[in-house]
Design brief:
This protein is α+β, with helices and mostly antiparallel strands and 260 residues long. The chain folds into two domains: 88 residues, no CATH class; 154 residues, no CATH class. Helices cover 61% and strands 9% of the residues.
């Protein structure tokens, strides 16, 4: 067992069969904290530290190691949290966490809250896109809630690019989808790029940009609500507008009852 202090919190780890591993783990955390003190002006380094800690916690979960966090809130008062997540989530964290989008470091703790509490990352992604697409509707938003912080982060996005598929891949892996589903995500992204090119040819770059952003928002909303009928309607309408055939990939998705 051992203690490691970080930002007013004490992490207690109990490894009953390996005291040497406990010592090494806590020593590593301690050294990491000293390194971070030298980088206080670099926000990314703080998030990188949290990512490493999240991976370490997932390793402990997979090894059935019990740990507790003690947060000091006063001279004689502390909050004590015993920490446990499902081994499946721990495994996904180990596999995927390094690919978290660096431009969204400011809401990394909110991402962790979503996955630790079992909330859907489709909702998380929808809030991001809402902030990006409907930013003017949130001009006076106050970042007092997790949802408002995610929307605010979406407002600061410069574009909707491929790194946002991280949240889809993470959620689908967590849902137990296989490698083929990850391929579908890549294919869908490529088909989306082709559709955007068709929109540009048909209506010009600026109108096409707004069209794609609105379509993305609507599709994510249907996925979030698991509304297959409206998902199909939006896909069909999108391809009718550019007079193109619906790709085989989307036709199959519309047939698959479990695809949304």
């Amino acid at each position: 067992m051992g203690f490691s202090k970080s930002g007013g919190k004490y992490l207690f780890v109990y490894i009953p069969t390996d005291l040497w591993e406990t010592y090494i783990s806590n020593s590593t955390l301690s050294v990491g904290e000293e390194i971070e003190k030298e980088k206080l002006g670099l926000f990314w380094s703080v998030v990188d530290r949290i990512i490493k800690e999240a991976k370490q916690k997932s390793t402990w979960i997979l090894q059935n190691i019990y740990f507790v966090e003690i947060e000091k809130v006063g001279d004689a008062t502390s909050n004590i949290y015993s920490f446990h997540i499902h081994p499946r989530l721990a495994k996904v964290i180990r596999e995927k966490i390094d690919k978290y989008p660096k431009n969204l470091n400011r809401i990394f703790s909110d991402f962790l809250f979503y996955i630790y509490t079992g909330r859907s990352l489709y909702e998380f992604l929808f809030l991001l896109v809402s902030g990006f697409v409907r930013g003017k509707s949130y001009e006076n938003i106050e970042t007092k809630t997790i949802e408002s912080k995610i929307i605010s982060a979406g407002k600061s996005l410069k574009s909707l690019n491929k790194n946002l598929t991280f949240f889809i891949e993470f959620q689908e892996t967590l849902n137990g989808r296989g490698v083929s589903t990850m391929n579908y995500i890549d294919w869908a992204y490529q088909e989306g790029k082709k559709l955007k090119a068709n929109y540009i040819s048909a209506m010009g770059k600026e109108k096409a940009k707004k069209k794609v952003e609105t379509l993305t928002y609507r599709l994510l909303d249907t996925v979030r609500r698991k509304d297959k009928e409206h998902f199909a309607q939006n896909i069909i309408r999108a391809y009718l507008e550019v007079e193109k055939e619906i790709p085989y990939l989307f036709k199959e998705a519309l047939k698959d009852e479990s695809s949304i």
